[in-house]
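pinned: reference chain
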Amino acid sequence: RFNIKTDEVHGYFEGLPIPAAGCLAATYVLCGVSVPQFVLVVCMIGVGILMVSEVKYPDFKGKSEIHINKLSYVLTAIFVIACLVYDWHTWAVMIFAGYVMFGLINGALNIVRK
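pinned: its structure tokens
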């Protein structure tokens, strides 16, 4: 989808990038995080849906056309810190979970802002 959707670079990914989703799953396994199977299944289905969604994620290549709400940084940081306080072993998972949450939070705040 990244290569066929457009001819020009917009400065963001439309949908969760495959490497971010893959790293989220891989770090979950490597960190030995323990969650109920039902929660894991729901999260992985959610990640799959985000991969084909129209949620905009920054691509870190420079100037992005999406409006990044400063409150998104704060709310994402609170989410990541709360998870790390709960279980610091999840630090690697939280890097990618924070990216996933940032896109969702920023998208929701931009919808509310309109």
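why pinned: The chain has a mean pLDDT of 83. Helices lie at 18-31, 37-51, 70-86, 91-113.
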